[in-house]
Amino acid sequence: MNILYVKIGYCANFIPDLAAAEKLLQILRYDPAHIAESLKTFLEGGHKLDDRGKAQASAMVDSDKLRVWLAEKETSSSLLVNGRCDMEATEGQSPLSFVDAQLVRAFQRSKQVLVISHFSSLYWDPGNSSRGTPTVRMVGSLVGGLLTQMLAEGIEVDISFLTKNDWKKLEGLELSKLCIVFRELTMQLPVGTVIFCLLDEVVVYETSSLSAEIDAIMRRLTRLVTKHTKVVFKLLVTSRGRSLDFQKYFRDEDILDLPTHVEIDDFAMWKVQNIGEEDRSHV
């Protein structure tokens, strides 16, 4: 791990930033080892997809919209991918989750980008209120992923903006405060930093009880795409079915609807497993 340069601040409730970062990760219960093991599970699960599932994954990889989204590294952009599967007739891992996992792996191999991701099935436990709502867990995983990588890369971290009252709100897993922390961390990144943010299987959040929280999250994330002038923020959102609530946060040209009928592709696995490799060679 590179040396972490900590900015020293002075206030009555000041906590040294390294200690504050570790405290925040503990509050979020963010475990990089668990994330890595789960990613491995998604990658291995792709091999268990049937031929139609593999073909759908290949269709996403072959799409021009995804290729353009991947290739452009100088401008922030967003993309919503709808798999348009019949949700009542599907089971097991989503083909789009397999593509997302392969993308995360490809991005992690690059030393010049940061990648944060949220795979809904890892955190979808509405009955476990001790870790907040599913939407709180979504933002928590993004904050934890970004903070962990900033520490690992030796990027200066300053969490002195949090007051004693802010810490109480974080301990109470207040969504708005987590969103503020996420935004503040992105503002501390070096100019020109490329962040890939992947949200997988978002259709599970399309419920009336979560709509207000999802709206708050998506408005903040899309604002990073359109308003953040310091970093390049690349947002990818995927859904095995057809997302309805999420579409309003994307322009029509930033929505990819996969075909409902796809031809079997003998090279599907090779295409998915090598996604991002050609692009990565140029970064």
Shape: globular
Q: How would you spell out the order of helices and strands?
A: HHHHEHEHHHHEHEEHH
Please state how the strands of the largest beta sheet are arranged side by side.
Answer: 2-3-4-1-5
Number of strands: 5
Number of helices: 12
* Structure class: alpha/beta
Low-confidence stretches: 1-15
| Helix share bin | 40-55%
The CATH architecture name reads 3-Layer(aba) Sandwich
Q: How much strand content do the residues show?
A: 5-15%
User: What is the count of distinct domains?
Assistant: 1
Considering the protein shown, what is the CATH homologous superfamily?
Answer: P-loop containing nucleotide triphosphate hydrolases
- The CATH topology is Rossmann fold
Structure description:
With 283 residues, the chain is α/β, with parallel strands linked by helices. It has one domain: P-loop containing nucleotide triphosphate hydrolases (Rossmann fold). 47% of the residues lie in helices and 11% in strands. It is built from twelve helices and five strands. The protein has helices at 17-28, 32-45, 51-62, 64-71, 95-109, 120-123, 134-152, 164-171, 175-187, 211-227, 268-273, 277-280, and strands spanning 77-82, 113-119, 194-200, 232-239, 255-257. Strands 2-3-4-1-5 form a five-stranded parallel beta sheet, sandwiched between helices. Helix 10 links the parallel strand 3 (194-200) and strand 4. Helix 2 packs across helix 5 (95-109), helix 7 packs parallel to helix 9 and helix 9 packs parallel to helix 10 (211-227). The longest helix has 19 residues, at 134-152. The radius of gyration is 19 Å and the shape is globular. It starts with 16 loop residues before the first helix and ends with a helix. Residues 1-15 have low confidence and may be disordered.
